[in-house]
């Protein structure tokens, strides 16, 4: 059974700092991995999706990497801003028959202080 | 498009009462998912529909939970009778592409926060 762990559970940084959020998964037979952002009282917004054959994806100040063999992904946020404050979740989609299911981590609550 | 619309945003009910949560997916999206989010267990898939047909309901926790999709623009998740441990945020999500087919982003609603006392 796939399990996804995110460390740390919460992170507080001053504005302008570069930061890294971590995600690990137990079953390396994945189809892809996604990073989502969740604002308080809102649903999830997809940030980046990395296919299993890819090593990284970039969007603006965000860069996500994937090391499938070691079961790890990182989300790098450059020059953090208060507007980046949110919960960040990673989710993996397993390869195989039930590959419509996403297994989510519990998220990292990020606070960027002005 | 207004996105995935869920109602109500908040629901407070007493144990034993029936609860119905509603979802309107994005027009043209043939795939609909119901998720539950709790602090302890995170986000869990409850059930998944394709073209209004339930494909996999293995995530539905108990027979007290049921979901329907009578047409392409409406789905309900019902809990009868409700229990305090059902308290959670319930999300509906939709997609216009087959799950697992490359970049198949899910569009989430803002959720319904359910509190059962």
How would you describe what is shown here?
The complex is a heterodimer of chains A (114) and B (117). Chain A is 0% helix and 59% strand. Chain A has strands at residues 4-7, 10-14, 19-25, 30-38, 44-51, 56-59, 62-67, 72-77, 86-94, 102-104, 108-113. In chain A, the strands form two sheets. In chain A, strands 2, 4, 5, 9, 10 and 11 form a six-stranded mixed sheet that branches. In chain A, a hairpin with a 2-residue loop joins strand 6 and strand 7. Chain A starts with a strand and ends with a strand. With 117 residues, chain B is mainly β. Helix content of chain B is 0%, strand content 53%. Chain B has strands at 5-7, 10-13, 19-24, 31-38, 42-50, 53-56, 65-71, 74-79, 88-95, 107-108, 112-116. In chain B, the strands form two sheets. In chain B, strands 2, 4, 5, 6, 9, 10 and 11 form a seven-stranded mixed sheet that branches. In chain B, a hairpin with a 2-residue loop joins strand 5 and strand 6. The radius of gyration of chain B is 14 Å and the shape is globular. The model of chain B has no long low-confidence stretch (mean pLDDT 92). Chains A and B meet through strand 5 and strand 9 of A and strand 5 of B.
Features:
heterodimer, A: 114 residues, mainly beta, six-stranded mixed β-sheet, five-stranded antiparallel β-sheet, 11 strands, 0% helix, globular, B: 117 residues, four-stranded antiparallel β-sheet, 53% strand
Structural classification of chain A? mainly beta
Largest sheet of chain B: 7 strands, mixed
The portion of residues forming beta strands of chain B comes to over 45%
Global Rg of chain A: 14 Å
Question: What would you say about this model in short?
Answer:
With 114 residues, chain A is mainly β. Helices cover 0% and strands 59% of the residues of chain A. Chain B has strands spanning 5-7, 10-13, 19-24, 31-38, 42-50, 53-56, 65-71, 74-79, 88-95, 107-108, 112-116.
């Amino acid at each position: 059974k796939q399990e996804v762990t995110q460390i740390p559970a919460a992170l507080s940084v001053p504005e302008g700092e570069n930061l890294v959020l971590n995600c690990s998964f137990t079953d390396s037979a994945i189809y892809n991995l996604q990073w989502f952002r969740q604002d308080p009282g809102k649903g999830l917004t997809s940030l980046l999706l990395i296919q299993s054959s890819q090593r990284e994806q970039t969007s603006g100040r965000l860069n996500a990497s994937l090391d499938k063999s070691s079961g790890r992904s990182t989300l790098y946020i450059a020059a953090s801003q208060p507007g980046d404050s949110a919960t960040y979740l990673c989710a993996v989609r397993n390869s195989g028959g039930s590959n419509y299911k996403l297994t989510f981590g519990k998220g990292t609550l990020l606070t960027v202080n002005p | 498009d207004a996105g995935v619309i869920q109602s109500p945003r908040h629901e407070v009910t007493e144990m034993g009462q029936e609860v119905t949560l509603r979802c309107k997916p994005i027009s043209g999206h043939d795939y609909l998912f119901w998720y539950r989010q709790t602090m302890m267990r995170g986000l869990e898939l409850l059930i998944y529909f394709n073209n209004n047909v339930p494909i996999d309901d293995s995530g539905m926790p108990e027979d007290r939970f049921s979901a329907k999709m009578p047409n392409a623009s409406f789905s309900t998740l019902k809990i009868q009778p409700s229990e305090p441990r059902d308290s959670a945020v319930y999300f509906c999500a939709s997609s216009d592409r087959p799950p697992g087919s490359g970049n198949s982003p899910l569009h989430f609603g803002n959720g319904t926060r359910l509190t059962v006392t």
